[in-house]
Design brief:
Elements (H helix, E strand, L loop, with lengths): L27 H17 L2 H7 L6 E3 L9 E9 L5 E18 L3 E3 L19 E2 L1 E7 L5 E7 H14 L20 E3 L1
This protein binds the ligand CC(C)(C)[C@H](NC(=O)Nc1cc(F)cc(F)c1)C(=O)N(CC(=O)NO)CC1CCCC1 and zinc ion.
The site of zinc ion (ZN) has 5 residues, from helix 3.
Family: Belongs to the polypeptide deformylase family.
EC number: 3.5.1.88
Function: Removes the formyl group from the N-terminal Met of newly synthesized proteins. Requires at least a dipeptide for an efficient rate of reaction. N-terminal L-methionine is a prerequisite for activity but the enzyme has broad specificity at other positions.
């Protein structure tokens, strides 16, 4: 079971390296790790389990964050109804060798800024990202997939793809005007 101790420290070199492409057929151990990464997200979003194992409620996790230099990440993002009950997953996917094949010029940024499971502190400022992206990737079985995302879902997936390129969210913050969106950025 993955817990917070499996996350490498923020300054660990692997978090600043380009991860390696996953070879198919994917080896059993890496497949099990990917499934465990998804399970970590599910556990972290279950308040009882999160409290029991002191997990930060995560929506996405990339292999380099747990010391594995492979191009693979999991996203588990549920939709909620007005009572706040989980309805169905908006994204429940393990992305292998993902590639952004097109993106909008317009940008969005979470108005409260971003955080990261690998960064145990607040870093103030907005993180502008393309509002819409089209991502090509393989699933664990090796099937080629293509997904179009926008807004929050696009932000989550771009945050994870950044991890595979050694980029952390605060690299995108303009330290001179951390809370100032450009004219092409909409706060969401
Ligand atoms: C860093 C942390 C605050 C834990 C962040 N969670 C989050 O933003 N909120 C959240 C949590 C849920 F469980 C369900 C939900 F819909 C929203 C997160 O998981 N990440 C993922 C990460 O660090 N991946 O490497 C950071 C987010 C910042 C922008 C997108 C992902
Ligand atoms: Zn992160």
């Amino acid at each position: 079971m993955i817990t917070m101790k499996d996350f490498v420290p923020e300054k660990e070199p692997i978090l600043r390296e380009q991860a390696r492409p996953v070879e198919f057929p994917i080896n059993e151990e890496l497949k099990e790790t990917a499934v465990a990464m998804r399970q970590f997200l599910i556990n972290s979003q279950d308040s009882e389990t999160a409290e029991k194992y002191n997990l930060r409620p995560g929506v996405g996790v990339a292999a380099p964050q747990i010391g594995i230099d492979q191009q693979i990440f999991a996203v588990y993002l549920m939709d909620y109804d007005e009572e706040g009950n989980e309805t169905e997953p908006l994204i429940d996917e393990i992305f292998v060798n993902p590639k952004i094949i097109s993106h909008a010029v317009q940008k969005v940024a979470l108005k409260e800024g971003e955080g990261c499971l690998s960064v145990p502190r607040e870093v103030p400022g907005i993180v502008p990202r393309p509002k819409r992206v089209t991502v090509k990737y393989n699933d664990l079985e090796g099937n080629e997939k293509k997904i179009r995302l926008r807004d929050y879902e696009a932000v989550v997936v771009q945050h994870e793809i950044d991890h595979l390129k050694g980029i952390l969210f605060y690299d995108h913050i303009d330290e001179k005007t951390p809370w100032e969106p450009d004219e092409d950025t909409t706060l969401i």
